[in-house]
């Protein structure tokens, strides 16, 4: 079986057209999870995925709920002693919205300029299919499964993952695995694949401040009561130091610092700071001292005011002391910071800084911890080698400033290493008109996936002996 991967590669090479046909079929189903009118299409897409598994020789199960869209679940027969890989992806897509903004209809997949255009091409049908095709090819060629696989393909990634959350809560032991593979993101740039090994977490709150029980004339009452809007901004002004650190006591206590090795790798990434500022229309950098822009974006925690209101918002002047004011505030968290502890630190800080004469209320909106896979993980090494083989180029290692709650739920529940292998590009127009996915990336992604199983197999053998 030693040259199995070479034969798998030949097989994938020879079946490119079939792979593209599968992709077109999948993309032609308008599986828009947010739109109740597309419920029958959601069912059709789930069944298409289930049918794909049965062609691979696997029985798929639809995990249903009365209101949500099914999770398609399949697994290969368990083979003792082999690593288990969980592959996650989603078959639902964003609404296509205004069809006149599309050059070709969103659910009539069209190939132009080496890319396939359709809603869901990059996010996530094209990407998830790379893994199904590679596992299928392995089986076709070797008549055996290279690893233990569990497939979780959900239909609610774009609308909150209710069925999957419940599945994870109730049957996490069924999903036990050594490594989770997700392709639902982008490369670092054209021809520069990336392995994303960390995501920031988030703790998001609404802060409401209440003063007098009605709005007051600012002439008659100004100077006699605490103005809730002023109180709110005074409090918010104390959330950060002048130079850009979060001022809440204890906020940095659990922060996992960047290792020297990570800092070195981040510094080596081709990143043009002036171009970055220009692209945002700002003149100057700002942020936590002592860190580069990429470090601040990906690996340092932050505080942001995301929304702010209170008092008169209309045209002209109205002399008023508002009865209420409020803000939406978020903290981006990094590995080892616990959203619950951050909440406690926030509450005790507010108790300390709230001026007299107003009351406040904190409403929890959402929270999820950061995700990090150690750069020393053997799965990271396997992915690095696999990407190098398929793309003829070493991947760069990146982290992501945003949060993907389902990924942190997977890591919390299953305790496995997460590999985020995005095959897309920043200009794929995901969530926008004219979404596309490069066919070269589709095929290279499939080949990288096939190599990944080979290199993970080798880890399994190394730990056996
Ligand atoms: Zn996606």
Written overview of the protein:
- This protein is of the alpha+beta class and 465 residues long.
- It has 2 domains: 4-199 and 370-464, 3-Layer(aba) Sandwich (Aminopeptidase); 201-255 and 301-368, Alpha-Beta Plaits, CATH 3.30.70.360.
- The protein has 14 helices and 18 strands.
- It has helices at residues 4-14, 16-27, 39-56, 121-142, 162-171, 218-221, 228-237, 260-268, 273-280, 293-298, 339-353, 378-391, 405-414, 439-464; strands at 60-63, 71-75, 84-90, 110-112, 115-117, 148-154, 179-182, 194-199, 201-210, 216-217, 302-310, 320-321, 324-333, 359-368, 371-372, 396-400, 417-420, 436-438.
- The strands form 5 sheets. Strands 1-2-6-3-7-17 form a 6-stranded mixed beta sheet, sandwiched between helices. It has a 4-stranded antiparallel beta sheet with strand order 11-13-9-14. Strands 4-5-18 form a 3-stranded antiparallel beta sheet.
- A hairpin with a 2-residue loop joins strand 4 (110-112) and strand 5 (115-117).
- The two termini are 18 Å apart.
- The relative contact order is 0.18.
- The mean pLDDT is 95.
- The structure holds zinc ion.
- The site of zinc ion has 5 residues, from helix 4.
Summarize the structure.
The protein is an alpha+beta fold and 465 residues long. The chain has two domains: 4-199 and 370-464, 3-Layer(aba) Sandwich (Aminopeptidase), CATH 3.40.630; 201-255 and 301-368, 2-Layer Sandwich (Alpha-Beta Plaits).
Topology at a glance:
Blueprint: H1 4-14, H2 16-27, H3 39-56, E1 60-63, E2 71-75, E3 84-90, E4 110-112, E5 115-117, H4 121-142, E6 148-154, H5 162-171, E7 179-182, E8 194-199, E9 201-210, E10 216-217, H6 218-221, H7 228-237, H8 260-268, H9 273-280, H10 293-298, E11 302-310, E12 320-321, E13 324-333, H11 339-353, E14 359-368, E15 371-372, H12 378-391, E16 396-400, H13 405-414, E17 417-420, E18 436-438, H14 439-464
Parallel strand pairs: 3-6, 3-7, 7-17, 8-16
Antiparallel strand pairs: 1-2, 2-6, 4-5, 5-18, 8-15, 9-13, 9-14, 10-12, 11-13
The structure holds zinc ion.
Zinc ion binds near residues 90, 123, 124, 157 and 184.
């Amino acid at each position: 079986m030693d040259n199995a991967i070479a034969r798998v590669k030949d097989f994938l090479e020879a079946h490119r057209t079939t792979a593209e046909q599968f992709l077109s079929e999948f993309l032609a189903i308008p599986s828009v999870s947010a739109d109740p009118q597309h419920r029958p299409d959601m069912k059709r897409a789930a069944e298409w995925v289930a049918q794909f598994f049965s062609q691979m020789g696997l029985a798929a199960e639809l995990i249903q709920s009365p209101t949500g869209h099914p999770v398609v679940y399949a697994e290969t027969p368990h083979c003792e002693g082999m690593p288990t890989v969980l592959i996650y992806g989603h078959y639902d897509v964003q609404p296509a919205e205004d069809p006149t903004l599309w050059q070709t209809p969103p659910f009539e997949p069209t190939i132009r300029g080496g890319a396939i255009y359709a809603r869901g091409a990059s996010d996530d049908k094209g990407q998830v299919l790379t893994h199904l095709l590679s596992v299928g090819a392995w089986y076709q060629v070797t008549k055996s499964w290279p690893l233990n696989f569990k497939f979780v393909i959900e239909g609610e990634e774009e609308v909150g993952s209710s069925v999957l959350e419940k599945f994870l809560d109730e049957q996490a032991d069924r999903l036990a695995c050594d490594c989770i593979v997700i392709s639902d993101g982008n490369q670092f740039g054209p021809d520069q694949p990336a392995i994303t090994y960390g995501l920031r977490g988030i703790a998001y709150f609404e802060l409401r401040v209440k003063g007098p029980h009605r709005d007051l004339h600012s002439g008659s009452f100004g100077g006699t009561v605490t103005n809730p809007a002023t109180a709110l901004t005074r409090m918010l002004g104390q959330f950060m130091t002048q130079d850009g650190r979060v001022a809440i006591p204890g906020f940095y206590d659990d922060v996992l610092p960047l290792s020297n090795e990570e800092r070195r790798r981040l510094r080596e990434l081709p990143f043009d700071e002036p171009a970055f500022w220009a692209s945002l229309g700002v003149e100057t950098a700002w942020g936590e001292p002592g860190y580069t822009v990429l470090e601040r974006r990906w690996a340092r925690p932050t505080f942001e005011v995301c929304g702010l209101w209170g008092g008169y918002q209309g045209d002209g002047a109205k002399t008023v002391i508002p009865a209420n004011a409020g803000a939406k505030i978020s903290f981006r968290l990094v590995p080892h910071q616990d959203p619950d502890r951050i909440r406690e630190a926030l509450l005790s800080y507010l108790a300390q800084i709230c001026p007299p004469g107003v009351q406040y209320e904190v409403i929890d909106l959402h929270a999820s911890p950061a995700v990090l896979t150690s750069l020393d993980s053997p799965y990271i090494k396997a992915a690095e080698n696999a990407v190098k083989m398929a793309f003829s180029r070493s991947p760069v290692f990146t982290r992501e400033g945003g949060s993907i709650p389902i990924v942190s739920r997977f890591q919390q529940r299953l305790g496995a290493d997460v590999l985020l292998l995005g095959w897309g590009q920043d200009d794929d127009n995901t969530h926008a008109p004219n979404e596309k996915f490069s066919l070269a990336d589709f095929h290279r992604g499939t080949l990288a996936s096939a190599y990944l199983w080979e290199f993970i197999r080798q880890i399994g053998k190394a730990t056996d002996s």
